[in-house]
Amino acid sequence: MPVQDLQVQRRNMNGNRGMLTVLHRIPSRDRLAMSSVADTADRRPLRLFFIPYFASSHLIPLVDIARFLAARGVDSTILATPCNAALVRATVDAAAAAGLRIQLLEYPFPSAESGLPPGVENLSALPPSECDKIDYAIAFTRPTLEHLLGLHHPDAVVADGHFPWTIDIARKLGIPRIKFTALGTLSFCVFHSVLANQPFKDVTRDDERVPIPDLPHPLLLARSELPDFLVQDTVFGRLMEEVREADKASLGIIINSCTEIEGIYLDYFHRMLSIKKTWLVGPISLNDSESSSVGVRGGGLNPAAVGNRARCLSWLSEQKPSSVVYACFGSWSQFTGEQLREIALGLEASGHPFLWVLREADGAEWMPHGFEQRVKWRGLVLRGWVPQVELLSHAAVGAFVTHCGWNSFQEGVSSGLPMVTWPIGTDQFIIEKLVVERFRVGVKASDSIRSTTDPNRTIVRAAELARAIGSIMDAGVAAEGTRRRARELAEKARAAVEKGGSSDKALNDLIEDIYVWHDNKRSAAGMAVDI
Ligand code: UDP
User: Fold this and answer.
1) 389: closest CA among 277, 470, 293, 473?
2) Rounded distance, CA 296 to CA 471, Å?
3) Are 120 and 111 in contact (CB under 8 A)?
4) How far apart are CA 9 and CA 18, in angstroms?
5) pLDDT digit string (tens) for 226-272?
6) 160, 247, 504, 513: which is the annotated catalytic residue?
């Protein structure tokens, strides 16, 4: 859409959107009575603009970061397209109502330019085979985002890694660009090592595991377990070089992790990737005293999500402590009918109560005959969105079957629950290594070597899933050891986000580093200090 067509319009009473809608104008307030670098340094609050990627697993944590920074005195503006803004509006509203300087600024999704139908603005709205279309759309957002950043001229832009060209915009505006990544530090190191060392170059079989060089501990992966953009031609893969150059030129990278979990990878990260700074600010889901915002986290005020929450909480309240197996595979993964059927039978065969979340697109024709009737007293199967963080902290939940998405990993660790790992795509087979090998807080759903890219991937059988669940839920020394290590790891994660902990400090450091960047710029230019 031509930039000159953009205009700021208010949402009208029918909810119809203008080309661009400022959803919240936070009245300027006196300094917030919260811990704030801005207060102590007697500087004016920083104005930061955040650009999330079009996936819930990127959007939710970046909005949380914007909130946490707002709680430290930053004036945070999140740039989001209408459907994505709707998912986080309740969270932003609650933060704004509590007095934080935080707002959403909507811009149109480039539907016509990218060939996506109106209303499809998030990975979760597409089957995995078509997700490349969302990445293709990103290039078309550039003129709009450039226009908005130029118009508002923030003190820094915090952009998801999928928008590497924001470094050029930041340079033009004379502000720092900070990258937000929804990946973990280990995944970054593995990607780099695979590209730099080519450990698969003489390996003929896709399912043969080989050591990944230069990491601080042994780690074996098969080519089939690497993310699609390392092994196939994808839109994002074609951007990799640009992404790496932008990473190096950025002030640094914000990561949803903590030094207690991933500190050992930082040496490789800084040395080999030439990244100037990292701020490990997680686990983000723990860094939240606002239980009301946790409840709607990422699901918006969609009635189905609100209804699911009520059903889950009511059902869980009738279950015994630590008895329920919670199974959820992220915001956009999908299974074949055959695989769904095996999951259903595996949950049933485990003998434990279970809460299983399916995606809307999963259909129902796979349902084993009589399944619903047989499990109705001890199983709850829901479609759509549930408040995962809230459910994981419920006293009735005793284990987490997870696809090892990075957020789910952080949330699983934070909950102190043992996990059954079921990686599906992207970097999830790498994250599984953290759960099963490094921290030993979970077990694999299956020992077979599977594929991130093959749609006819190896089926995990019901008996394998039931056995894995039993090995962390049932009595026995091994299961008790896994559960104890999970509790201990959660303690470390909790300490990181507490006041004075490593992640709490990292958030303060991030603010200070932006001030220092501007101080240095002014000193270099011999200008008066006005920030
Ligand atoms: N999530 C949620 N409810 C759902 C499904 C997912 O709250 O029904 C959240 C989950 O808590 C996590 C994010 O969505 O924060 C999923 O991110 P992750 O990195 O684990 O996986 P992805 O969606 O990228 O596969």
Assistant:
1) 293
2) 33
3) yes
4) 5
5) 998 888 788 888 888 899 999 999 999 999 999 999 999 999 999 99
6) 160
Beta-ladder partners of 156: 48
472-503 pLDDT, tens digit per residue, is 999 899 999 999 999 999 999 999 999 999 99
Cα(404) to centroid(ligand 1), Å: 10
CB-defined site of ligand 1, < 6 Å: 56-57, 60, 297-298, 328, 330-333, 357, 385-389, 405-408, 411
Mutate to test the pocket of ligand 1, among 57, 58, 256 (most ligand atoms within 8 A of CB): 57
Six-digit token string for 370: 């009589």
Q: Is 58 assigned a catalytic role?
A: yes
Report the nearest-CA residue for atom 2 of ligand 1.
388
Q: In what order do the strands lie in the sheet with 419-421?
A: 379-383, 354-358, 324-328, 397-402, 419-421, 442-444
* Secondary structure of residue 355 in the 3-state scheme: strand
CA–centroid distance, residue 478 to ligand 1 (Å): 29
User: Measured in whole angstroms, how far is the alpha carbon of residue 433 from the centre of its chain?
Assistant: 18
Kindly give the number of the ligand 1 atom that is closest to the alpha carbon of 409. 20
Contact yes or no for 252/178 (Cβ under 8 A): yes
Strands 220-222 and 209-211 come out as antiparallel
To the query of whether residue 206 is one of the catalytic residues in this protein, the response is no
